[in-house]
Design goal:
By secondary structure, this protein is α/β, with parallel strands linked by helices. The chain is built from eleven helices and twelve strands. A six-stranded mixed sheet has the order 1-2-3-7-9-12, with helices on both faces. The radius of gyration is 21 Å and the shape is elongated. The structure holds Salicylyl CoA.
Amino acid sequence: ETPAGAPEYQDILYHQAERIARITINRPEVRNAFRPQTVRELIDAFRRAHLDPKVGVIVLTGAGDLAFCSGGDQRIRGHEGYRDEAGVEHLNVLELQRQIRTLPKPVVAMVAGYAIGGGHVLHLICDLSIAADNARFGQTGPRVGSFDGGFGAGIMARTVGLKKAKEIWFLCRQYDAAEALDMGLVNTVVPLAELERTTVEWCRRMLQLSPTALRILKASFNADTDGMAGIQELAGNATALFYTTEEGQEGRNAFLDKRDPDFSRFPWRP
Ligand code: 2NE
């Protein structure tokens, strides 16, 4: 079901059912490589799912069985980035990575076929990765004259360990689904025919849990790596919870009533 009012996208698909938003990169003719327009649409779709209170969990996937995503579209790679329709060159996928990482709902990568290059980093950034048995993973940067030294290196090292992360980047090999599971790069591997069903099952399980607990846990996992921005995200959750208390509301009410606030009935907790 595509929700009413959803924009018509050219490079992606947006579906929602049962509090699960599914965002699909839809360029199978290039193994779901992304161009600036694709990334712009993905950012819009993730924002939509983030803000929609009817959405609890987001699934990112690629159209067809052959690829999740093969990274930046090399045909339109220009002098300093990927060229858009106006000729402007971008690396806007870095903004998308930050968005997936920080939006306060679980994001699940559903991977069939290749997750390669910048497409591999996208699955890495997602909170969970569910792989079909035909999935293949790897970085190609040093072979095609590129690299992702941000989350692509740092989160990779945190996920699979430093030695393995360096191997993945320095050798540009491909790894099958069993190897990916073995190194902790994915959460589970299922037969291709079971991929959709398992992903929905995992999403349904998360949807039965406390949204606030999952929201704050996601921020907590990012907090130390993300420095002040990570603390901001955690602290924003504390502020939002404080707003819901009588103590927090007394300050606002006093201001609106044009009186001094009276916090005397609230305890100084140990
Ligand atoms: C993905 C992979 C391994 C698939 O291989 P295979 O054998 O299944 O398919 P094939 O024949 O290579 O690809 C099918 C069609 O898709 C195009 C191919 O050129 C081919 O087109 P035709 O010959 O049929 O016309 N295609 C595939 N990937 C593409 C891409 N990324 N851009 C444009 N066209 C693509 C194999 O195709 C592969 O290795 N692809 C390249 C992977 C790659 O190097 N990606 C870029 C990494 S750099 C990056 O993503 C990046 C970054 O490092 C930093 C910031 C932002 C992005």
